[in-house]
Amino acid sequence: MDIFANLAMGFGIALTPYTLMLALIGCFVGTIIGALPGLGPSNGVALLIPISFSMGLSAIPALVLLTSVYYGAMYGGRISSILLNIPGDEPAMMTTLDGYPMAKQGFASDALVISGVASFVGAFLATIGLMFLSPMLAQVAFKFGPAEYFALYMLAFCTLGGIGSNNQAKAALAAAIGLGISMIGLDKTTGMPRFTFGEMHLMDGVDFLVAIVGLFAVAEVFHFIETHGKDSAIGVKLGKITVNWAKLWSTRYAMLRGSGIGFVAGILPGAGASLGSFLAYMTEKSSAKDKSTFGKGNPNGVAAPEAGNNAAAGGALIPMLTLGVPGSGTTAVLLALLLTLNITPGPLLFTERPEVVWSLIASLLIANFMLLILNVPMVKVFVKILQVPSWVLLPGVTMIAFVGIYSLTGSSFDMMLMVAFGVMGWLFRKLDIPTVPVILGILLGNAMEDNMRRAMVLSDGDWTYLFSSPIAIGLWIAAVVGFVAPMFLRGVLKKPPQPSTDIGIPD
Amino acid sequence: MMRADRIFGVVMMIVALGYILSAMTIQTSFLSDPVGPRVFPYMVAGVVMISCLVMILRPDPEVHWPVGGMLLQMILALAVLLGYAMLIQPLGFIIPTVIAAGILSWQINPRPVPAALSGLGLGIGLFVLFKFILGLGLQGLPRALMG
Fold first, then answer.
1. Residue B82, CB half-sphere, CA atoms under 13 Å: how many?
2. Beta bridge partners of A185
3. pLDDT tier at A232 (50, 70, 90 boundaries)?
4. What are the residue ranges of helices labelled H in A236-378?
5. A193 has which bridge partners?
6. Full DSSP string of A208-236
7. SS3 A185
8. Res A241 pLDDT > 80
9. I need a labelling partner for A403 at 20 to 30 A (CA). Which of A54, A112, A127, A381 fits?
10. Chain B residues whose beta carbon lies within 8 Å of the beta carbon of residue A49
C-alpha cells in the first residue's frame, strides 16, 4: 500500500539525528509549556513561531519542532491539573475532576502514570487515524470549489462560535472583528489599499502572528496582574513514581473509548481538544455502573479525558492539513505556522509536497514515544519546573513574546500593535467574548473573501451559486445546526464543578 | 443600568459604521470582479452590527472591573509594555528588558529585591539564550555605546 511506502519515506526524513533532536527539544519544551498554568498549546506555539522563523529553520524542521511542542503541551497539561488543581491548559480542565482528588488521597503517582499512558494511547491512535484518514479526506477535498470552501469557512466559524462560547452573538461578533481586521491592507484582486488610512505599516495587512501573540500571550499578562496570579506552589506531595500495573490495566477500556470519542471530536471543525476531553469524561461517567466515584478520584475519570484530549489534538490536524480549516485555537496557530513557512495546506499538499506531510506524521509517531518516556518515568523533572515562581515566569514569557515579534518584523509599530491586541484580549476575556474566532477570522478572512469572489466570477454574480452543489448545501446545513443547536443543548451539557482546592492543603 | 456589554455594543456599532464609511471610499479598479473589494467588508460590518444589537438588548451579567489601585497597576503594566516596545530599538535588548521585567515582576510580587534580581536575570539570561544559543540577531546594548 502506498501509505506504508509514504510512511517509510517520512521516517527516512524524520529519523535523521538533527530532526530527532528537534523533536526531543520540542517534546521537552512542549511538556513544560503545557504544565505551566497560563501557558497552553496555543499561546506556547504562538510564542515559538516567530522565534523558530527568525532562527532560519526550514519548513520540515520547524514543523517537526512545533508540532512536537503541540503534542507535548497536550501531555503536559495534566501535570498541574493533577498536582495543583489548576488545569495547565484548557483541554486539561476535565482531568482536574478526578486527578486532583486522586492526588489528595496519596495516589498522585498513579494519576500521573495513568494519565501519561492515556495521553500516549490517545495521541498514538489518533496519529494512526490521521495517517489513514487524511489522504482519503484529501481526495474528497479535491471536489471542493470556491462555493464549497466558502461554506466550509462558514461552518468552521459557526461551530466554533456555537460550541466554543457561551453567547452566540459574542462569538459571531468576535469572528466578524477578526474578518474585519483581515481586510486591512492591499486587496489582492484589485491591488487597492483598504482601511490603511495612509499608514505604510498597514499596507501588508496586520501580521497574524502579531495578533496571535498579542491576544494569547500579552493578554495573559494583564489577566495575571489583575488576578494577582494563583500561587503556583505545589499543594500535593509527590512521592516516588511507581507504576501500578493492575490499576493501569483496569483503565484500558476508558482509554480506548476516550481515544475514539476524542478523535471524532477533534475532526469536527470548531470542536477541538476541550470538547474531546469533555465528551470522553461525560461518556465514561454515564456508562459507569457506579457513578458516585467520579469526581472523587476514579482512575477512569483521569484516563478517559486525557486520552480524549490527546486524540482530539491528533484528529484536529486532519481538517487543518487536508482542507486548511483549523477547528480550534491551537490548530489555528498551527495553520499560522504553515502559512509562515509558505506551506499552503489543502488537498494539493498531499500530492505536491508529500514529504512534508509524511515526515510530519512520522515525527509525530516518534514524538509520542519520546513523550511517553518524558511524561511517565521522568515526570519529576517537570514537577520541579512547575515550582518556578510566577514573578519570574510571567515577565519572562512577556519578554519572549516581544523578542519573537521584534526579531520577526523589526518594527516598534508591530510591537505596539501586539500590546494593543493584548489589551483587546484582556477586555474580551472580561466581557466573555471568545478570542479564538478573532484569530480564525484574521487567518481565514482573505481566503474566505477570495473564495466568495471567485465563486461570483464563476457564476457571473449569481448568489444562489453558493448553495448550488450537494456538498455546499450539506456544509451550510451543518453550519446552521452547529450554530443553533448548542443554544438548546447548553442546559444538558453543563460542566461539572471543579473540585474545591481549599480542603487539606498544607500551607 | 449601564452594563459593560451595552457600552461595548454601542462602541462597536459606531466602529462598524465607521468601517462601512471607510469601505465606501475603497477605490475599485476597472479590472474588478463582479463583487469588488467593498461587498465583503459590508457583510462583515453587518454581522458586527447585528451581534452588537443583540449585546445591547440582551447583555450578560455585569463583570467585576478593576478600580482604584488595581486600575493604576494595569495602566502601569500597559505603559511599561508600550515603553518597552519603543525603547528596545534605540537602547538595545538588555537595559529595557531588565527594567520592564523588573517592574512586571514587582507588580506580581511586591518585594523589590527578588523583582530586581529577576529583572537582571531575565535581561541577561534571555539575551544569552536568544543571541548565542538560538542565534537571533539582537542588539544587546545601545548602538551609541557599541560604536
1. 10
2. A194
3. very low
4. 245-250, 252-267, 272-287, 299-315, 317-323, 329-340, 347-352, 354-375
5. A186
6. HHHHHHIIIIIHHHHHHHHHT----S--S
7. strand
8. no
9. A381
10. none
The 8-class DSSP code of residue A500 comes to: P
Cβ contact A382:A76 at 8 Å: yes
User: Rounded to an integer, what distance in angstroms lies between the CA atom of residue A117 and that of residue A135?
Assistant: 28
Q: Which of B4, B12, B34 sits opposite A461 (nearest CB)?
A: B34
pLDDT band at B16, cuts 50/70/90?
very high
Which chain B residues have a beta carbon less than 8 Å from that of A389?
A: 109
- What CA–CA distance (Å, rounded) separates A326 from B76? 36
* Strand-pair partners of A194: A185
* Minimum CA–CA partner of A194 in chain B: B26
Cβ atoms within 10 Å, residue A142? 12
What phi and psi values does residue A186 have, to the nearest 5 degrees?
-75, 135
Query: What is the Cα–Cα distance from A487 to A493, expressed in whole angstroms?
Result: 10
B97 closest CA partner among B124, B62, B129: B124
Instruction: List the grid coordinates of B145.
Output: 555605546
Chain B residues whose CB is inside 8 A of the A453 CB are 33-35, 40
CA distance B111 to B107: 9
